[in-house]
Every structure is written in structure tokens, then in C-alpha cells.
Predict the 3D structure of the following.
Amino acid sequence: MTPQTLAVAASTISASKIYGSGEDAVYALNDVSVEFYEGQFTAIMGPSGSGKSTLMHCIAGLDELTKGSAIIDGVDLSTMKDKGLTELRREKIGFVFQSFNLVPTLTANENIRLPLMLGNDKGDEAWIQNVINTVHLQDRLTHRPSELSGGQQQRVAVARALASKPRIIFADEPTGNLDSTTGAEILSFMRKAVDELGQTIVMVTHDPVAAAYADRIIFLADGKVVSEMTEPTSGKVLDLMKTLGN
Amino acid sequence: MFRIALKGIVGRKARLILTSLAVILGTSFLAGTSVFSDTLTRTFDNLFSDVFKNVDAYVRSSQVIEADFGLEERQRISIDLVSVVENVPGVRDASPDIQAFARIIGKDGKPLGSDGQGPPTFGSIGEEFAGALWTVADGKWATASNEVVIDEASAKAGKYVVGDTVKVVAQSGSRDFTLVGIASYGDVRSPGGATFALFDSATASEFLTKPGFIDAILVSGDGSVSDTKLSAAIQAVIPATAKTETLTGAQITLETQDQIGSALDFFGILLQTFSFIALGVGCFVIYNVFSISAAQRQRENALLRAIGASRKQVTRAMLIESVAVGLVGSTIGLVAGIGLSSGLSALLKALNVDIPSSGLVVNQGTIVSTIVIGLVVTVLSAILPARRAGKVPPLAAMRATALEIAEPGRKRLYGGLLSIALGIAIISAVIGGANNSYLGFGILFVFIGTIVLGPIIARPVALFLGRPAARFRGITGVMARQNSARNPKRTSRTASPVLIGVALVTAVTALAASIKGQINDVFTEQFKGDYAVTTNNQFTGGLSPSLALDLNKLPEVDKASGIGLITVKLNNNGQYFTTIDPGTVEGVFDLGLINAKYSDLTPDSIFLAESYSLRKNLPIGSNVTITLGDATQRELTVRGLYKFDELAGNFVVNRAMIANSAVVNFDIGVYIVGKNGVPDGEVQAALDKAVKKYGQGELLSKAEYIDKQSGQVNQLLGLIYGLLMLSIIIAFVGIIITLLLSVFERQRELALLRAVGMTRSQVRTTVRWESVITSLLGAVLGIILGIGLGWVIVFALKDQGLTSFKLPVGPTIVIMVMSFIVGLFAAIYPAWRATRVNILDALNTN
Ligand SMILES: Nc1ncnc2c1ncn2[C@@H]1O[C@H](COP(=O)(O)OP(=O)(O)OP(=O)(O)O)[C@@H](O)[C@H]1O
Ligand SMILES: [Mg+2]
């Protein structure tokens, strides 16, 4: 698969995010132009403070760019107000955070359907059942987050992100708090969602093993895209990280 | 540790402000009401020290009958004594004084001033006198029997100018006078908002009281002897048969101030009682805020413990914080309270009570007690949360969640149930015949038990109340319902102030409904007329007795019978006797006579209430000796007993007994039956015309009259509602504070919800319904307790003649709706804050 044959789900054009001004200005993102392709699992890597989370937040409509534009589904986010952005996040984007992903007062089932319910949308029931089965949550649906393990909680979060058939899912270090076995489980679910359900996923990670589940990796350093890799393995990633580190 | 505590305070200004808010409100009501009543007392003290400022001696009758309600009836003295007093050496000037009921009728035929409520309406003497405070502002003093002078405020209100004809109503009827002057009182236009009609002494005596009689003599000395000597000299000259006493100016001033003072004291105590209730409600809010902040700081405290702070140190840090909050809060509360009381004074001015302002009176006692009480209440409310904060295990520092340990314990369940059971047992004992005074304890135990059980009931009840929200409001309703139940302790602590406020309001409403129901029943049973003429002025002068006689002569009227009230001394106690006219009372007013006819009530007879006759062993045929207001004695024979004593009281006499005596005699009502065959409209028109001519009293149909009687309860109810508002306001603010703290605590959750697509308006809806559910939780429990409390109070008043409990269905629904609205309003600011949560900041604080 080459990039040319794939549709673009989300992209940025000359995106910059600057904190402060003048001498003290910090470039969290510095003239970043990237494209995320439909049906692909993309990983974003880079050292701490390189701007990974910032990039993700700006494309997902959680934060605003200082310069340049972020585009999802052909729409420039800078033209939208809070209400439009909220609807966009609810309908076209799925989120998986590192921790604190679930509303503690709602059951697993309610958490999974939360974005749909917020939009007064019944959703595609067959699809939702399919998602629930895929992440093996059938017997945990009536439990509240406090009654679930960390791995199960992340699985609920992944299921929630998938339930509304978003154009794109953003995951910021989704396995950062999990042990490697549980982490691997979540990653294979995400992989499965891309392969079997045709989802588009963008994931921020520090872990070469996790990144190896992706189709493509984008490397950031000091707010700039410094490298890119397709069909990665954890070995190749480690090697590249070593060279980038120098 | 002290430094850490102070840092903690300064570091969290928002929390400090929220905690202080409850203290501020509670103490400001306390300070406000106390400053207000002190100011009122001082104002009236000044007013009355002015009244007798230039009076050195005061001569009045020594004959007085003191009756219930602190009222007394003093006999009048002869006007001839004035010349006797004038000739006493040392007397410069002496002036007769009369202060009696009189109403100035406006040009539109409506009386000026208020009828029975608010400042009184007086008729008095206005003459040149060395000690007088009235000065003629325009025109001259009245000198003839057809001349009158009125106060400046009344002249302005009635648009009267010198030369106009003014109708004045007094005890003896109404009369037209020529306005010859307008007077002002010291530097105000009228004292205390009262209206005054001033006459020369002969006219005043004849028109306002009885010809030849006056209330007192005001004496101004020439300064040659002391007031005490002057008074003694005067008293020595007056013959003993005149039965007078002579006071010095200082004595009469003090006596008047005391009288007013005790009336104001009662008002002050009422205000203070309700502000203490409000402060008690405020305790819950303070306790709640400290509990929540202890929970939110659990990790921080655990960290302190982990690095070596002792339990005591953690607890002490929190107590130091509470001292700071108490001091800051009650100081601000004091200032706010002073502002509040000047607001109340302004309100009085707006209500046209023109009192000479002497500035606000902020006593040292008010300052000290406000700050001390505020401080003590705050620290007491913080003790439990502070101890709990100390108990936090160091391990909690490692735990991720900062949720309160919310499992209600078994001890709580048993403790609460025990308290309620004890309360119910006490109440049952009282119902079974034990002393009424235990009732308070029973009620208290039930309240305490309910509040102790609060956290246990809160969850199921909140979930139940939240059902409609969850059903009709989708996911936002579901979350609101879950949020209100997620921390039952917090929810019940927030709802408790609402519970107390609503319970009190409901109980008072139930009591009022029962009283109104009873009044309705009594009047329907005993009042048999088609119309009634009444006056609100029942104690300081009512309807002229001639009104009933005149109405009786109307061709459209079958019968008109006056019902009067006199003050009588019986066995050395002042008593009210009802006077009736046996010739016309039949079929107009029903006493429920037992084996007697109205015609048995000759002028030397008395009818007694059956219960009184039994209690005092005074059967038919026995004799009672009474002393009338004019100091004469009568021997009356009991000639009949009656059942209905609710309106008539224990004693009924023939009004002919006091005809042609100097006894103050007026009717409190005239009951009328129209002539058979004459259309209602004609009867009413004829009566209306006749009553208007008198310028006193108000003509009411049977239904209006009965409504009006129960309507008087509404006024008292209004006052108590107003005072309970203080508690309701604190409960309301308590909801706001808790919601705000919850919103701060749930920032991450809110950020998550916003990230996955919750709109701002959905966030608002969630907070709003949580607030409504909490408020309704308090209201539902409060209404249940309030109805029980009302029932118990009605039961306790059985001996006072209250026999039936009435459930206030309508008002209860109104209270529910109001609680709903209170919940909506309390949520406005917290909901807005919730929508302002910064998604990224909240998500990033891992
Ligand atoms: N609110 C802010 N104000 C100032 N600087 C900020 C702010 N938020 C982020 N930055 C800076 O922007 C840069 C990028 O931050 P970002 O959170 O995107 O890094 P990251 O690559 O996600 O790092 P990590 O791997 O540690 O999560 C950092 O240097 C950070 O200090
Ligand atoms: Mg990051």
C-alpha cells in the first residue's frame, strides 16, 4: 500500500503552536504538515516535550493552532466554534486517553454509548455488539469503572471510541499505564479494528513495541517532523531512535 | 504546622471564600437583626424622651385595670383638676392631655393612616403650653368647638390646607371641623408616622372622651423646686377622692420607654430566634464545606502523614484554618449585617414610618457576640471533619482517587433509628397525657434521627427522585441522577438545610391552615348575620356604640346588634367582658345558650361560659363582684351558661350595664340581618351609605367577614415566612457551594465528557438536574417531617381550643414547586463554572 492510493482522513498544513511570545516563545509545533490516511494505523513517536500531544490535540479540535490549519474530513477546524467542534468530536472523532477515560458514575455499557447518547443517536446496534464482542466485554457491561481492571477500562475506552464509527480515533499513550501483556491485548484490539473494521487510528506512544503495531510511524522532535517509517518492527524503530537521538 | 495551615488557606482562595460565605450569611443575619432592633429601641427611646422633655410633672388617675396582651385601661380624671394644679407654687404652666382614638378622613372619603395596623391614629389636645412639643407650622391653634389642627404629614397626605373642612371620626361619632392650623412635632412632621387631630381642651374632652374628662395633666415647673418636690406638692394639693397619682417627667418618660421597649423586645427576640435558626442551618453548610475540602485534600494530608506529620498536626492545621475562616467570615458578616439593618431601616422609611433617625446603633455587645458566635460555630462545625482528616492513612497518598469514604455505617443506621424511635416514644407519651413541654424533645430527637439517617436515605431517595430526569433528559439526566447519589453523605449534608427550612415552613403552614380552618368553623357556627361592620382597631378604640343603633333603624335592616368589649377587674385580675344587646342579638350571634334566653341577661346579670362556670364553681344563681374601668363596683348574678366561648370568651354582660358611665366603651363589631323580602343589593347599599357616613368601620358580607377573620392568620404567617427566608437563603447558598466544590472536584470528568462530545448546554443540564434532585430530596423529607411537626403542634394546642388538624395540600405542592425552582436557580453559577472547565488543563493534570 502506498500513500498515494489512500484517502486522507486528517491532515495539518504548516501547523505551528507557539506558547508565549518574543524571547520566551516555545514552539510546541513548528511548521508541521502531516497527513493521516484512512484505514491506517499511524503512530506518533518522539522524545518527551517534542509536541506529540499538542499535535494530536490540535487535530482533534481540543486545542487551537497558532498558525496553519488542521483539517478533518475536509473541514478546516479553525473555522469552527465551540459548538461545532464539540459536535465534530462527538460524531467524527474517537478518543482513548492514557488514564481516566471513563465516567465513574456510568456503567461500561453507558460509557461505550456515551458519545452516541450525548448526540441522541441510537447508533448502529449490530456494529456496537460487534465492537463489544471484539473487545470481549460482553459480561462486564453492567459494571462501573471502579469494578473494572485497568486493562478492562482501556478496552471500554477503545470500544467507546469505536462505537460511533468515527472517521478517526486518537489515542494518547493508551497503554502507558498498563503492563506489557495487557498493553499487547489493547494494541491487538486496535490493530484488529483497523484490519477487520476498517478504522483509522492515530496513536501517540513512547514504546517501540507498541509502535510496531502501526502501519506507519511519524517521528517528532522539537515540534518538527523529523522522520517517517512504514511497516515498522520494534527493532527498526529502536535503531531509528538511536540515530535520531544522536 | 501553623505555616502549612496558613499556606493552605492562602493557596486556596476560592475555597476560603466559599467556606466563609456560609459564616458570613449566618452572622450577618445575627448582627443585622440585633443592630436593627437596637436601633429601633434607641429611636423610640429618643422619641419618647422627647415627648416629655419639657414636662416636669405628670398627673393621672391611679385607677387602672391591667388585662391580657399587656394592655391596661386607666381611668380618666376631671378637667377641673387643671386649675387646681395650676395654682400650686412652683408650677409655671399646666395643660390637660388627652390621647384617644381619632381618624382624619381624607377628601376622597377614605380615612388617612392605617386601620389598626402600623402607626396609630390619635386625637389630642393642641394648645399653647410651655411644655408642648407641637408647634403651629401654619395657621393657629384650634380655639372653638368647630376647629381642628392636624399634623403636617397628614395634611400633606390628605392635601389639606388651612381653611378646608376636615371630617374627623372619634369614639362618639364623626364630625366636620374647619382646619385652622397645621402643626409639626419637634423637627418631624408627625411622630412615628402616627396621624394627629388636635383640638382645644374642651372640644377634645367632649369629642374624644367624655365631656369633662381628660387622660392626664402635663405640668411645666418654673424651676424653683426639683421635679420630685414639685410632683409631691401637686399630689398633696389634689383631693384624695380624685384618686390620682403624680409622676415626675423622668418617671413617665421611663415608664413609656419601658412599655415600648417590652413590645420591641418581643419583636427583637422573634428576629433573633429566627436568625439563630438560620445560623444553625448555616452550621450544616459550614460542616459540609469542611468535610468536602477534607476529602479533596485527602491525598495532600496523606502525603503530610507519610512524610512524618502526626494525626494531631493534620487535625490542628485544619482547625487553624477554621479559626481563620470563622474570624474573617464573622467580621465580614458583622459589616454585612450593619448594611442589612440600614436596608431594613430604609424599608421602614419607604413604608412611610417617619421615625427621627438617630443613626444605626452598633452596640459593643453586638460586635463581640457576632464575632464570638461566628467563630465558635465555625470551629465547632470543623471539629469532626478535622478529626477525620487526621485519621487519613498515609497510604491514601498512593491511591489515585480522592473520593470520600462513603459507606454509611451500621452505627449510623442504629443511632438514627434509635433517635427517631425515642422521639416518637416521647411524642406518643405526650399524646397519651404526659406534659406538653416534653414535646420539644420528642421533635428534636426525630429531627436529629432523620438527619443522622440522611446519608442512608439519600441514595435511594435521590435515585428515585432522579428517575424522571433520567427518563426524559437522556444521558444528561442519567448522569445528574447518578451524581446526586454518588456521594450520599455529601448530598444529605447539602439537603439537610433544605430539609430543616422546608420542615419549618410546612409545619407553620399546617398550623396556620388548621387555625384558619377552625376560625372558619367557629364563625360559620356562631355568626348568623348577613353582614358585619368591623374595625381593625379593636383595642385602641373601635366602633361607636351608636352605629349599631342607627343601623338598626334602617328600613332595609331586620336587626343590627353591636358586640363590644370592656375591660373589667374580677378577683383583682383584668378580664375582657363581651357586651351584647339582648334585645337584638338573637339570630345574629349565637352563644349556644344552655337553658337560658337572651332576655334573661338583665343589666345586673352575667352569662358565663359553661366550662368556666364548672371550673370556678359558679353555677346559675351565684354572684360575682366586678370593678369597672370607672372604679365603680357591680354585683352581678349568673343567669345563664353558654357553650360557644371561642368568640365571646368566658363572660358576657348586657351593654346597658355600662350605659351612661365613664367606662371606655366601643363595639368591635356590628352584626346585621337584612329584612326579609328586601333584595340583598338594596340592604347592602343602605348599609354602605350609613357606614360611610360614620367614617369608621368596614362593611363586609358574611363570606367576606369570615374570610377576613382567617385572613388575619395570613399576616402572621407572612411575617414568619419572611423570617424563615433567612434559613432558606442559607440552604440555597449551601447548595450553590456544594455544587461548586463538586464541579471543581469533577474537573477531569467534565473535561473527558467535553472531549468526547458533551456540549456546554448538556453540561449545564447535568449540573442543573443534580441540583434539583438534591433540593427536592431535602424538600420531600422536610415536608414529611413538617407535616408531622405541624400535627404535633396542633395537638399540643388542643387545650388552647385548636381541635382539628388540616393538611395544607395546596401549599405543600407550592413548596415542592418552589424547591424545584430553588434547585434550578442554585445551579446557575455552578453550571456556568462547569462549562468553563479547560479541557486540556484538566486532562493534563494526571
Ligand atoms: N500550556 C503550555 N504552556 C507553555 N508551554 C507548553 C504548554 N503546553 C505544552 N507546552 C510545551 O509544548 C511542548 C510540547 O508539549 P507536548 O505536551 O505536546 O509534548 P509531548 O511530546 O506530548 O511530551 P510527552 O511525551 O512528555 O507527553 C513542551 O515543550 C511543553 O513544555
Ligand atoms: Mg504527551
User: Anything to note?
Assistant: Chain B touches chain A at residues 474-476, 478-479, 482-483, 486, 748-749, 752-760, 762, 839-840, 843, 846 (CB under 8 Å). The longest helix of chain B spans residues 249-296. Chain B is about 55% helix and 15% strand.
